[in-house]
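sorry for the late reply, my laptop died twice this morning and i had to redo everyting from scratch. anyway the thing you sent over, i finally got around to it. pasting the sequence first so we're on the same page, its 486 residues, then the predicted structure underneath. double check i copied it right bc i was rushing
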Amino acid sequence: MGSTSAENNGSDHVGAPGVGRRSLIKRSAALGLVSVPAMSFLSACASGGGDDSGDDNSQGKTSEENPFGLKEGSKLDVVIFKGGYGDDYAKAWEADFQKQWGVTSSHTGTQEITGKLQPRFNAGNPPDIVDNSGAQKIKIDVLYKNGQLLDLAEVLDAPSVDDPSKKVRDTVIPGTLDPGLQEGKVVALNYIYTVWGLWYSGKLFADKGWEEPQTWDDFLAICKDAKSEGIGGLAHQGKYPYYINVAIMDLIAKKGGLDAMKAIDNLDPKAFVGSDAALAAVEAIYEVVEKGYLMPGTNGLTHTESQTRWNQYKAAFITSGSWLENEQLKQTPDDFDMKFLPMPLLEGSSMPFEAIRAGSGEPFIIPSKARNLPAAKEFMRMMLSKKWSTLFAKEANSLTILQDGVDPSVQLRPGTQSTVEASKAAGDNTFRYLYTEWYSEMDTAIQNASNELMAQRIQPKEWLKRAQTAVNEAAKDPSAKNNRRE
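ok and here's the structure:
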C-alpha cells in the first residue's frame, strides 16, 4: 500500500479538532509556493521501561551541535517502508548523514515490515529507526503497550537544526504530531503531510464531458453514466478495505461535522448505532454497490491491481491518500492528468464540499532497545531540517510536516499539485481521525465489516452494529481514558 497509516503531537493538543486549523491558511500559502507533500514519524525517550542509554559503543560527547551525543564513526540500522514514496529519499538522507557525521547506515527497503521486524523486536534486537508503514506495518498501539517505543519528547524538545532558538516541535505544522500520540506521549513521528479522498482522471472527465461532482447525487450521476459506457463508477482496493473506509469515514465527518468524528475517536456508545451521519454515510456507499456502480472485480483486487485498472480508464473514481500518484508512476499514462477530489456532500452535510481529511502519515519510530539511540535521535532531528525535507520532496514528490520546509524550486506532479490546491481551498475545514492509531483492533474490525458490506454479505445496519461493537470493545481498553479529543 502507499502510505496507509493512514491514517497520522506537539504544539496542538489531542483535542484540536483538525490539523492545525489556525495556521492552515498560512501553511496553504506556503504549500502553493513549494507544491509538495510528505510525512514521517519517530520517537525519542524510553516509553514503558525502555533503556535510553543505547549501546555503550555508540555514545559520544554531547555539545550544542550534537545534543544527543552521537558518536562519529558509529553505525545506524535503518528500515524504510518501500511503498508509494519509495526509499531513495532515505538513501539520500543516509548519504548526507554519513558525510556530516561519519555514521555508516545499514539500509533495508521493504514492504514486509512485520515479517522482517517482528522477530527482531521479539528478540530485543530491533533496528535503530523504522518507517513503520504500509499494509504490513506493526501496530503502533501494540508496540507502545509492550514498552518497545521511545517517547519522542527528547527529540521534539531539542534545538531545531535550522534555528537552534526553536525547539523541533515548534517547527512542524500544528496538529501533525497528534497521530503519533499514545496516552499523551508522542511515540511516532508521522512525517508526510497527506490528504485523503477521491481521485479521477482529468483526461477521462474532459473526454466524457463530466464535471467535478460536489454533491453525492452528482457523483452517482457520473457513476451511472460511466456504467452505461462500460466503465466502472468507483474502484476500490478490495483486499485492503482501509481504502473504502476513506470514503465512509469522510462522509461521516462531512455529514455530521467534527462532533461525529470525535464521537468515533472518543469511543462514544452512539458513535455508529444512533448516529444519523454514520447511517447516511454507509447507506450512500451501499447504494453504489446496489446499483452496480463498482468497477467489476474491484472487491477481489489488491491496491495496485485496482489502481492500475483505474489508470487504464476502467473506472471513473478511486479512493486513496496522496501517495497514490507516486505509487502509480509507472502505470499512469502521460496524459492521464491525475486529480484529487474532496468527498462529495450528502444532503444536509455540516461541512462544506471543500473540507478534506488531511494530516500527517508515514510514521517513523525509534525502538526503545535500539543499539544506537544517539544516532537515531539525531537522524530524526535532521529529518525535520529544511535540507532533508527538501531532499524528501525531490525524491518522493510529497510535502513534509515541516513548516515552510521545502525549497520553492521543487516542482510537483499534477496529482500532488491538486492536493496542494485542495488544501488551500479547504482553509480551516480539515479533519483527521485518530482511532486508527489508538485502537488497531477496532480499526481492523471496521475494515472487516466494510469488506462484507462491499461484497453485499451484510447490509448497512449490520455494518453499523459491527462497527459499534468494535467501539464498545475498544472502550474496555484501560488506555482509552488517556486517549481523548475534546
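The chain has a mean pLDDT of 89.
thats about all i looked at so far, will dig more tmrw
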